[in-house]
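From the shared-data thread, chain only:
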Amino acid sequence: MTIIDDAIEMEERARSYYAESREKVSDPSGKKILELLATEEERHAQILAGMRTGDYGKLGSSSLVSEVKGLVEGAVNQGNNAISSDASLRGILQQAMEIEQATKKFYEEKGKTAADPEEVELFFHLATQELEHYLLVSSLAEYFDRPREWVESAEFGLRPEY
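Structure, as tokens:
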């Protein structure tokens, strides 16, 4: 098994986790967030699959953060007091944080050892995107019950205590 195969397998596991978790959540907003995450991981797997034939493709920028931000802002504007009414989403997000962190670490390690400069660039780009996923998911978990504060946070990250 090659590094690319390992990376595709990791992305597929993440995609499967999000897709299966989507079926466990009853709330439409929660389902949509998990669908967006699954789609993003599938996109990564497709790019990695192209590497097998020497097609390094372009990751481009992700619209994941802006789409999730729109969902949260919609919840706030509708007067909802939570991102999702489904309490099981919080536990799913906790597990997602671990997945995203492990995937980021994998890409960082492989980027340091890859011989091909295009592989190095792609692995570090994927590591950056996985970090963005981690920050997004961790902020969703942190602000699960406080969407107004999440929307007000410029970086969608942890806010210092005053």
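The chain has a mean pLDDT of 81.
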